[in-house]
Write a structure and sequence with these properties.
Chain A: One of its GO terms (molecular function) is aminomethyltransferase activity. The complex is a heterodimer of chains A (about 375) and B (about 130). With about 375 residues, chain A is an alpha+beta fold. Chain A has 2 domains: about 280 residues, 2-Layer Sandwich (Gyrase A, domain 2); about 90 residues, Aminomethyltransferase beta-barrel domains (Elongation Factor Tu (Ef-tu), domain 3), CATH 2.40.30.110. In chain A, about 20% of the residues lie in helices and about 35% in strands. Chain A is built from 8 helices and 19 strands. In chain A, the strands form 4 sheets. Chain A has a 6-stranded mixed β-sheet with strand order 10-11-12-9-3-13. The longest helix of chain A has 12 residues. Chain A is globular. In chain A, about 50% of the residues are buried. The model of chain A has no long low-confidence stretch (mean pLDDT about 95). Chain B has one domain: RNA polymerase II/Efflux pump adaptor protein, barrel-sandwich hybrid domain (OB fold (Dihydrolipoamide Acetyltransferase, E2P), Beta Barrel). Chain B is α+β, with helices and mostly antiparallel strands and about 130 residues long. Chain B is built from 4 helices and 9 strands; from the N terminus they run βββαβββββααβα. The N and C termini of chain B lie far apart (about 35 Å). The model of chain B has no long low-confidence stretch (mean pLDDT about 95). The radius of gyration of chain B is 14 Å and the shape is globular. Classes of the chains: A alpha+beta (about 375), B alpha+beta (about 130). Chains A and B meet through helix 2 and helix 7 of A and strand 4 and strand 6 of B.
């Protein structure tokens, strides 16, 4: 795809001005790193605060008295009892329980739900919503209309509270309408780095002014997609299309925690989402493979796609995400392994350039999450 | 110490007093790669020109370092095991990769000189 065909976020010109190295990502021309570089950007986010442009992600509003009930038919998550001012992690499943996309759902109140979906999936997600629940609620894509910024790191709250003091009272996964620089924004206390921080939905026309105001604060640096990936990997967070896809169920992806209690086999509103039978059967009977954390025992990074073998050299899985963790100070990975090998500390080997690199099955997150829970 | 020569794969070569040749990657290459976190260095053995002798891993990706000429690797830079960031900090000095004995010493002079390499970089930038 040539650069001319790539889409641009409302912050594109700012990225160029800041000296970003741009790469194609999900059809957008996006900053992979700024002059600071991935390592320092990563560490800056863990130490202070990083500003990420995630405007390529899809924002969708659902409106109507039946919106929550309708959305529940597509996700294994409790939406009906999602409190006003709260956000929840969810995933769209297909008829076999495979994951079509993962998303965030927030309850704005007044029968309004606000969704954030992955950039690469947003058109198909919109079509999926329209096809299945289009007759039950109003579905409004905000793709062009709104930008999305993430302010992440231990200083994020101090910085954002300078613009809106009330955000300091929010706790992890709370969601609020907040005026920033006089503009109506949606703010959630959440993110994709394992750090405390906020995600800010802002009208596209006001995005650059807000980004510039945040970058003017001494704690804040612009952070690219490179560090976003190493931060989320250290936090043990899944990347759609890599760590899960239509061939993996929430059980295989080790996302059982995200299936709300009322939607489970013994819950008050059991099932009722696509592929529920298969998901419940897997939950009870077990799965043949599962996503686990993997820690290379040498300095060699182990990348996505690398085969994983047992001591006898038999293939028992593969790496779905892998790289180097700047905070961890070494390589780290996630992979799908035959269930016989998923116990913590099980020794397995990745094949990297024809050589066996020893790995240990490891707990996740690799770096402790530091969400603010009040 | 002779002047540097370069390959189109962004490696530099310097012929030492004993006729052996030291190899590293250029400032342009390290900048394009980003933060280097691991270098898999070659074995002390002969490689054919173009063989992937070493691998340099940045935060994001793995890239091959190719043998610039037929020859035998005599020594690798042991500092890169514990300090791969030297490739970023001092690519033409402390960040060298390996030293080899070329099969044909005269072949080194036929590689790109500084002017030709600078033109290559400029052409890349303009492309």
């Amino acid at each position: 795809m040539s650069t001319e065909q790539l889409l641009k976020t409302p912050l594109h010109a700012l990225h160029i001005e800041l000296g970003a190295r741009m790469v194609p990502f999900a059809g957008y021309d996006m900053p992979v790193q700024y002059p600071l570089g991935v390592m320092k950007e990563h560490q800056h986010t863990r130490d202070q605060a990083g500003l990420f442009d995630v405007s390529h992600m899809g924002q969708i509003r659902l409106t109507g008295a039946n919106a929550a009930k309708a959305l529940e038919t597509l996700v294994p998550v409790d939406i009906i009892d999602l409190p006003v001012g709260m956000q929840r992690y969810a995933m769209f499943t297909n008829e076999t329980g495979g994951i079509l996309d993962d998303l965030m759902v927030a309850n704005l109140g007044n029968d309004e739900l606000f969704l954030v979906v992955n950039a690469a999936c947003k058109d198909q997600d919109l079509a999926h919503l329209r096809k299945h629940i289009g007759d039950q609620c109003t579905i409004e894509p905000l793709f062009e209309e709104r930008a999305l910024l993430a302010l992440q790191g231990p200083a994020a709250v101090t910085v954002l509270a300078r613009l809106a003091p009330e955000v300091a009272k929010m706790t992890f996964m709370q969601f609020a309408r907040v005026k920033l620089l006089g503009v109506d924004c949606f703010v959630s206390r959440s993110g994709y780095t394992g750090e405390d921080g906020f995600e800010i939905s802002v009208p596209a026309a006001s995005a650059e002014a807000l980004a510039r105001a945040l970058l003017a604060e001494p704690e804040v640096a612009a952070i690219g997609l490179g560090a976003r990936d190493s931060l989320r990997l250290e936090a043990g967070l899944c990347l759609y299309g890599h760590d899960m896809n239509t061939e993996t169920t929430p059980i295989e992806a080790s996302l059982l925690w995200a299936i709300s209690k009322p939607r489970r086999a013994d819950g008050a509103r059991a099932g009722g989402f696509p592929g529920a039978q298969n998901v419940f059967a897997q939950q009870q009977g077990g799965v043949s493979r599962k996503r686990v954390g993997l820690l290379p025992q040498e300095r060699t990074p182990v990348r996505e796609g690398a085969e994983i073998v047992n001591e006898a050299g038999e293939i028992i899985g593969s790496v779905c995400s892998g790289g180097f963790g700047p905070t961890l100070g070494g390589p780290l990975a996630m992979g799908y392994l035959d269930s016989a090998y998923i116990a913590l500390e099980t020794p397995v080997w990745a094949i990297v350039r024809g050589k066996k690199v020893p790995l240990l099955v490891s707990k996740m997150p690799f770096v402790p999450q530091r969400y603010y829970r009040g | 110490m002779s002047e540097l020569r370069f390959t189109e794969d962004h490696e530099w070569l310097r012929t030492e007093a004993d006729g052996s040749v030291t190899v590293g990657i250029t400032a342009f290459a390290q900048n394009a790669l980003g933060d280097v976190v691991f270098v898999q260095l070659p074995e002390l053995q002969s490689y054919d020109k173009g063989a992937e002798a070493a691998t340099v891993e940045s935060v994001k990706a793995a890239s091959g370092v190719y043998m610039p000429l037929d020859g035998e690797v005599l020594e690798v830079n042991p500092a890169l095991d514990s300090s791969p960031e030297l490739v970023n900090e001092d690519p033409l000095g402390e960040g060298w990769f390996f030293r080899f004995q070329p099969k044909d010493a005269s072949a080194v002079a036929k590689l790109l000189d500084q002017d030709a390499y600078d033109r290559l970089i400029k052409a890349n930038a303009d492309a």
